[in-house]
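Module 6 notes. Inverse folding takes a fixed backbone as the condition and produces residue identities as the prediction. Think of it as a translation problem where the source language is geometry and the target language is the twenty amino acids. Below is one complete input and output pair. Work through it position by position during the lab.
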């Protein structure tokens, strides 16, 4: 039976990014369908560990860097012989393929791309950029399949790498678990801004993501500075990262210290989303931003930069939320104010989010597995 096939997912850790959440959702979904599922991690750490189904086996390679996982992963492929190894992010995809090649394994390697390759690669130091670009161009055409999480990511990858059409497939991320989101969103967040909101009725705006250059929270902070002149509002940015000190300095410079909070990573972002008045995605680039879909699922209005790629596809050209140019804090502030004054129907937002359900994506991945494993 197909459900008895061994499926493995390979990641650095479960530290809290979009790709990690997607693989956790997929691993749990396939375990639910009675597949034999392994989650192979360089390091067994991260907040998503507690979300793993007890039917999923966690294999820790005990390496601090993905590059150091090569020989351990080769040993894993020889011993466990998974039918398919799903990998996420190009450095992980490359190590996955090399492990297969060097062991002459029959395991199918499915690479997944969660961001626009041409933009992401530009953020790396020169030598890394050259090496990774070369490896991607050489090795990606040899992958058994490449999954792009949006049409924009697929188009970008096709421009960079000459791929046969049958190698690349678009499957939107499995994001929405209705029952879980409904349950978790009913919790009352403990953050003091929400207590203040219940007493005074002021507005809460929320941003969520790693505190990195990609997420461009400085643009959100500048926009919020303008919003504060028009609304009694507070801003919460959930997430952690290397830009924290820079952001804290900007908050102080803009005289927003009493109105902006950076509480770090929280286990239940749905309660924060549900109890906020508006979600903002200020990113410079994305693949298919999971958190934007989760905000829709909670029924709160959204405003997003029109970054490559994902937001325009999710929001259907702006039908479900305003799109503004990347890095334009004035346009972002204007869109936020307009949305707050004229919020959309929450039920329509939730309906749109259902398009990105785990069940829908699970069916597409199931068909992919079927075609790779049972293909004659």
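Target side of the pair, the amino acids:
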């Amino acid at each position: 039976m197909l459900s008895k096939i061994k499926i493995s997912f390979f990641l650095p850790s479960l530290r809290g990014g979009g790709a990690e959440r997607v693989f956790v959702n997929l691993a749990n979904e396939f375990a639910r369908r009675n597949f034999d599922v392994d989650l192979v991690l360089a390091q067994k750490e991260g907040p998503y560990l507690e979300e793993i189904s007890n039917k999923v086996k966690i294999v820790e390679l005990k390496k601090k860097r993905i590059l150091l996982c090569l020989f351990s992963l080769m040993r894993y492929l020889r011993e466990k012989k998974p039918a398919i190894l799903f990998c996420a992010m190009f450095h992980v995809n490359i190590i996955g393929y090399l492990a297969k090649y060097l062991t002459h394994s029959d395991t199918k390697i499915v690479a997944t791309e969660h961001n626009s390759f041409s933009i992401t690669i530009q953020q790396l130091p020169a030598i890394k950029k050259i090496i990774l670009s070369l490896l991607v161009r050489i090795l990606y055409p040899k992958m058994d399949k490449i999954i792009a999480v949006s049409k924009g990511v697929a188009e970008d990858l096709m421009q960079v790498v000459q791929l046969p059409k049958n190698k690349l497939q678009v499957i939107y991320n499995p994001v929405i678990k209705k029952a879980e989101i409904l349950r978790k969103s009913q919790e009352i967040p403990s953050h003091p801004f929400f207590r203040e909101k219940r007493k005074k009725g002021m507005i809460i705006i929320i941003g969520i993501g790693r505190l990195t250059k990609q997420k461009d929270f400085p643009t959100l902070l500048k926009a919020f500075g303008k919003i504060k002149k028009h609304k009694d509002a507070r801003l919460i940015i959930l997430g952690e990262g290397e830009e924290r000190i820079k952001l804290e300095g900007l908050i102080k410079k803009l005289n927003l210290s009493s109105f902006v909070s950076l509480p770090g990573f929280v286990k239940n972002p749905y309660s924060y989303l549900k109890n906020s008045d508006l979600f903002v995605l200020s990113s410079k680039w994305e693949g298919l931003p999971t958190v934007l879909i989760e905000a829709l699922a909670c029924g709160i209005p959204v405003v997003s930069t029109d970054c490559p790629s994902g937001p325009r596809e999710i929001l259907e050209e702006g039908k479900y939320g305003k799109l503004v140019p990347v890095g334009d804090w004035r346009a972002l502030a204007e869109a936020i104010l307009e949305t707050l004054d004229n919020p959309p129907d929450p039920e329509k937002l939730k309906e749109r989010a259902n398009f990105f359900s785990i069940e829908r994506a699970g069916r597409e991945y199931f068909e992919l597995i079927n075609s790779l494993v049972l293909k004659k």
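Reference fact for the lab report: The CA atoms of residues 176 and 354 lie 7 Å apart.
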